[in-house]
């Protein structure tokens, strides 16, 4: 079992109502790798970094079973840089800076050693580049999951629509689902998105959990009510990594198993927000993950007898 993860490896500067960071490691594929490697090895990473990226992070990922053969290193340019400021509700944020840097000339290549991977996680990235990876695979993976964001809907909607025909699961947040379909009702939006191609749709709703749609079925996973939410950056990617990690570990792509996978994804995301950047994911133990998944089970389990 192997999982290819494509996306950004970046530096982020984040402002939340509780603090501010200067330049810390982030990027969609970084979070996916940290989350997924708890469940599946190897995670085969495809990304691009500049001369400023931390070697200690690369070493840490390698120790966790993340293969970096597909990570291009550009010697004389900085890594992708993103900066954002969260509003008081921590669910909404403004992007302050998106410096593509090395990403502007990224031409992802799938190493020969990655061919045959059963699972593909297309993390948030230019839609054209996500497609370029699908096109290079000699064997279609069992499941292709794609994340995206409003930024790409604004500037590359046509490319995004092409990708939707090629993937199995789309991951978006509620405002992105609305932007994609011009529908306010998430049920109507879901129906329209499923008509655009993917067989499954996950709509993330931040602190209000996530919805999984498939045909006429819908499943809801709550988010764990947390006492402190410190920094939501990367929560969506961490969710994706946990979701995909569980699917790749079990190799079961049924709707029922996806329900479990979105609980696992939600559990992983709940850790991510507890500290700035990927710090909490870097120190996580297996026992803590199991305990957190159990917290979710306890949160929603109840007996009901109407007679
Ligand atoms: P999330 O909070 O899950 O949406 O992910 C935030 C991460 O996505 C940050 O670490 C950023 O480096 C990365 N990111 C921000 N904007 C983009 C973009 N336009 N394309 C790819 N990755 C991005």
Provide a descriptive summary of the structure in words.
The structure is a single chain. With 307 residues, the chain is an alpha/beta fold. Helices cover 37% and strands 24% of the residues. The chain is built from ten helices and 14 strands. The strands form two sheets. Strands 6-5-1-9-10-11-12-13-14 form a nine-stranded mixed sheet, sandwiched between helices. Helix 1 crosses helix 7. The chain starts with a strand and ends in a 7-residue tail after the last helix. The model has no long low-confidence stretch (mean pLDDT 95). Bound molecules: adenosine monophosphate (AMP). Adenosine monophosphate binds at residues 8, 10, 12, 26-28, 82, 98, 124-125, 149, 151, 233-237.
């Amino acid at each position: 079992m192997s999982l290819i993860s494509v996306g950004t490896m970046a530096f982020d500067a984040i402002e939340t109502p509780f603090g501010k960071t200067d330049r810390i490691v982030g990027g969609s594929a970084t979070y996916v790798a940290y989350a997924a490697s708890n469940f599946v090895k190897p995670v085969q990473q495809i990304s691009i970094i500049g001369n400023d990226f931390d070697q200690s992070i690369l070493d840490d990922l390698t120790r966790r079973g993340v293969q970096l053969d597909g990570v291009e290193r550009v010697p004389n340019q900085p890594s992708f840089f993103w900066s954002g400021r969260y509003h008081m509700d921590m669910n909404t944020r403004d992007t302050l800076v998106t410096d593509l840097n090395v990403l502007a000339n990224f031409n992802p290549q799938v190493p020969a050693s990655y061919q045959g991977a059963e699972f593909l996680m297309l993390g948030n990235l230019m839609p054209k580049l996500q497609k370029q990876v699908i096109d290079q695979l000699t064997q279609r993976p069992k499941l292709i999951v794609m994340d995206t964001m409003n930024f790409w809907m604004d500037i590359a909607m046509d490319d995004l629509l092409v990708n939707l025909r090629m993937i199995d699961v789309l991951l978006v947040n509620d405002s992105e689902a609305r932007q994609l379909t011009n529908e306010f009702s998430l049920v109507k939006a879901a129906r329209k998105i499923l008509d655009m191609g993917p067989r499954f749709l996950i709509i993330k709703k931040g602190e209000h959990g996530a919805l999984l749609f498939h045909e006429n079925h819908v499943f809801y996973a709550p988010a764990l009510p947390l006492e402190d939410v410190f920094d939501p950056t990367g929560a969506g990617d961490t969710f994706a990594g946990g979701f995909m990690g569980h699917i790749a570990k079990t190799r079961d792509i049924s709707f029922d198993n996806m329900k479990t996978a979105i609980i696992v994804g939600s559990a992983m995301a709940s850790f991510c927000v507890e500290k700035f950047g990927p710090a909490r994911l870097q120190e996580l133990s297996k026992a803590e993950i199991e305990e957190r998944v159990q917290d979710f089970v306890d949160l929603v389990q109840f007996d009901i007898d109407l007679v």
